[in-house]
Amino acid sequence: MLDGLMPGFRAFRIRHAMVAAAIVLSLPLIAGFFGTLHPAFDSAGHFRVHLAVLLCAFSLPLLAGSRRWHGLLAMLLGIGSIATVSGPPGLGVVHASIQPRDPEAAVYRLLQMNLRFDNAAPERVLSLIGRIAPDVVTLQEVSSMWDDRLSLLAAAYPHQVKCRGQSFDLAILSRRPLLESAGCSLNGTFARAKVDFGGRAVEVAALHLGWPWPFEQAAQVDGLAPELDELSETALLAGDLNSTPWSATARQVAQAGGLSRVGPIGPTWLYRKLPGFLRFAGLPIDQVFARGDLVVHAARALEPAGSDHLPVLVEFSLKAPVPDTGIATVWLARAARSIGS
Q1: How many separate helices (H) and strands (E) can be counted in the chain?
Q2: Start-end ranges of CATH 3.60.10.10 in the chain?
Q3: What CATH number is given for 94-318 in this structure?
Q4: Which of 12, 24, 185, 282 sits between 20 and 30 A of 163, alpha carbons compared?
Q5: pLDDT in the model for residue 9
């Protein structure tokens, strides 16, 4: 008799284990939507997609058994959570408009790269920059080993800004002249420079935030807000945020600077000991933001270059300046004459 009850008892235990697993997965998944309340919740939110996929996987056996309502709720929560990652702006993701190219407008390129401080193949980075020939490059984790390598680019990129950080340096390389002296702030985690793009100024900023809670990221974002508010009307911000586009951190960066996120770009970081075919399971923490007269045409991750981060290439142009019709001048002249009379 006991032998006949054992299969049913095992099935009962398995169903309960599945329900318990679904509940355990749903707690950090739901907490991640409240990242503005505490940085700990925001840290959990970075793994929203991973948690949601696991939750959907655990819900499948429940849908086929007596716990089908539990399974249905878990499945809906998982699918709904995944939808928010690429959903409308109201759900926390803001996209800069990606528009077709104007054949009469010049197209420029920005290359964003976290070099990795101990990159074992620095020649791949130099080869990529030489082949892509971007107008401007933003770099993070520029350790001392990169000093000699980047000096090889001095002829092609004579305008170089380097910011000394507590751990690693930050750099902006430009083919085009800088219009003003560049600035470094926040202990070398933020760099900015106004670049001359065909006679028009675009402020280019590079950013490298620290790790999320329980590390220093939240405090860095608080200190960053005034710097972002001071960016020029037309600006590009690129960097390794160590946070996902749907995180509270990314939203705070965008809101502080009146910026829109360029993308989607897709996963750019993968733990370096994992095989490359798992790149789809990585995190999209290398991001680009824009504002002002920029028209973004494309944003994509490129092939690996020896780092655990993929390079990101953004192609953009500048809106045509509004012609001066002279209406304001005529109106002022008429107003002056009427006052004089």
Answers
A1: 9, 12
A2: 94-318
A3: 3.60.10.10
A4: 282
A5: 47
